[in-house]
What we know:
By secondary structure, the protein is α/β, with parallel strands linked by helices. The chain has helices at about 65-70, 95, 110-120, 125-130, 145-155, 170-175, 195-200, 205-220, 240-255, 265-275, 290-300, and strands at about 10-20, 25-30, 50-55, 105, 110, 130-135, 160-165, 185-190, 225-230, 255-260, 305. About 30% of the residues lie in helices and about 20% in strands.
Amino acid sequence: MEPKTSDRALIFEVKGNSLDDGPGIRTVIFFKGCPLNCVWCHNPEGKSKNLEISFDESECIMCGTCLEICPEGALDRENPFYIDRARCTLCMKCIEKCPSGALSLVGKYWGIDDLVAVIEKDIPFFRNSHGGVTLSGGEPTMHMDFISLLLRRLRPLGINTLIETCGLFDLRHFMEKVYPWLTTIYFDIKILDDTAHREYCGTSNKAILDNLEQLHRACVKDGIELLVRIPLIPKITATQANLASIAHYLKNLGILEIDILPYNPLWPEKCGKIGKSPCPDDDRISGQWMSSEEIERCRAVFDGFNLR
Length: 308
């Protein structure tokens, strides 16, 4: 039986010594599950709210142990993803017997006490670098009760707390359970046009924009840092039209500090490991890092903003 969400949460990575998800040295907690379905998701292993099995072909030693032990016959070398996910029951026998670690579990249920114990070990690093804990994913607000309990435990320890969110959540619950215990909010805006947002992210952005507008007013009043971030995805978000519309929208709200996130082309490989096709024939997908010139072109659209 799945644990109660208030007692435990499904997390796919707890990453210490991170320098990429907020100021200073941070411990980043990546929660599973996201209400969006962005075609370029840089953490596709965080999309599903369920446990998954990953297969890394580069680590496989071709011993055949998993083929012999799978009770469902769900493993097949002729399968491009190796695992027939429809037949797999997540019994984990293949993972237990895999000698090379090519098969691994994506996700683990964590309790509050276990998570706090790991975080406490990093407190000296937080203090020396002005770092802290970052809640990421996936989408951490899909575990609202759990992160509320976690943040309440971290507050007496004097730990800086930051959440990275796609912005699609119940705002009333967020303001009651999460907002009072946060130091910083990183809020992603991807596409301003609602029709395009539905096409590329799988849902409307109306609730996201409503949440941003109300959160911005609250953060200004309460002195909480709110940083809007814009991921740069070639041919999708990193277009002149989209970036200009976002800049105009944010300026009208009085938001003049933003961050832009350069495209990371490594996500298709992650998709293959969990049995998802990244649609390699789709011309929206680039296998290249963005050039410095392209990044500067995007930055120039936000001339007058305080860019990080």
